[in-house]
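Example 3.2
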Amino acid sequence: MGETGRLREGIRAYLLIAAMWIRSTMTYRTSFVLTAVGNLAVTGLDFVTLVLMFAQVDTLGGWTLPEVAFLYGLSVTSFGLADLLIGSADTLGARLRDGSFDTLLVRPAPVLAQVAADRFALRRLGRITQGALVLGWALCAVHVEWTVAKVLLVPVMLVSGAAIFGAVFTAGAAFQFLAQDAAEVQNAFTYGGTTLLQYPPTVFGKDLVRGVTFVLPLAFVNWVPGAYVLGRPYPLGLPGWAAFAPPLVAAGCVALAGLAWRAGLRAYRSTGS
């Protein structure tokens, strides 16, 4: 089976497993609605914090509330998509420790697809909804001279950002093959990364900005392309074409995460239990 065939089989397996968990969730619809609403409210507290902050100041690092809301909406929505699609990968460590990961290896389906769809949590739509609402308000409130390129760049940022965060989830899962108890380390780069991107780069030191631009390129989720849309200076004085690089950065991150996953899977040794 070629790469295309394996990809097709992986997508099919993922959809089947996710559908099974969705049917299970919909058995208790009231519980699902309450959980989703609770998830939306909890994630919304981050933006409430920003609003309260702006009640005391006019700008944050030189950025206005609608501009920060634009960054926030892009970060939260992109992360929410990745969290919905592959966020379950952060539970891999528990499976490795209790030996249940071995059951995934003997099933006739790609292992990564099984890990990503495991306990597919539809309640995570609350985070996506909240981020999209903030992004929608920001797009209406921010002062931007819209062009075709800027309009098209917004959905590109969301898709590319989700792919970048998805790659981080996958790489974190691969790291758990070595550490077997690294969920908190993984969360520092996923949940911690999206929190970092909710604030403008001007409030952080240059060394940190360099790190999330050239080492772990989370800056291409919203900081770099967002600066182009808002007419802001690029972080670290990057060239103008960098705003259109997110798809390339996302493709590179996905490729590297795939290599890391395969290396981790080859290095896995069963617990024997």
